[in-house]
């Protein structure tokens, strides 16, 4: 279970920052202590924005996809290193 997950959608040229930890869903025990995670992704401009939005790929969807990728990476690292006991 991820906690302290705060996302603000900044200007697209700025990184997305949040704090996260990984907890056992059954016991609430901390498996991975709270830490900062920063995501930086390419901002679109001009014709790229128009084309992306025409496909339904809005700034919001790009930020959500980026954050989802970070969560997947964090969980995969916990599994790969055996931290999560999975």
List keywords for this structure.
2 strands, alpha+beta, elongated, disordered N terminus, single chain, 86 residues, two-stranded antiparallel sheet
Folded structure, characterized:
It is a single chain. By secondary structure, this protein is an alpha+beta fold. The chain has one domain (16-80). It is 35% helix and 21% strand. The protein contains two helices and two strands, in the order ββαα. The chain has helices at 47-54, 59-80, and strands at 16-23, 30-39. Strands 1-2 form a two-stranded antiparallel sheet. The longest helix is centred in the C-terminal third of the chain and has 22 residues, at 59-80. The chain starts with 15 loop residues before the first strand and ends in a 6-residue tail after the last helix.
Number of helices: 2
What does the overall shape look like? elongated
Poorly predicted regions? 1-10
User: Strands of the largest sheet, in order across it?
Assistant: 1-2
Number of strands: 2
Oligomer: single chain
Strand content: 15-25%
Question: Mean pLDDT score, rounded?
Answer: 76
End-to-end Cα distance, whole Å, is 14 Å
Radius of gyration using CA atoms only: 16 Å
Please give the share of residues in helix. 25-40%
Biggest sheet features: 2 strands, antiparallel
Order of helices and strands: EEHH
The chain-level structural class is alpha+beta
Q: What's the structural domain tally?
A: 1
């Amino acid at each position: 279970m991820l906690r302290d997950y705060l996302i603000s959608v900044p200007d697209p040229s700025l990184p997305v920052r949040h704090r996260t930890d990984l907890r056992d869903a059954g016991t609430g025990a901390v498996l991975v202590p709270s830490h900062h995670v920063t995501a930086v992704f390419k901002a679109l401009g001009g014709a790229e924005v128009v084309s992306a939005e025409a496909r339904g790929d809005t700034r919001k969807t790009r930020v959500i996809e980026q954050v989802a990728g970070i969560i997947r990476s964090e969980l995969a690292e916990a599994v790969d290193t055996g931290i999560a006991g999975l």
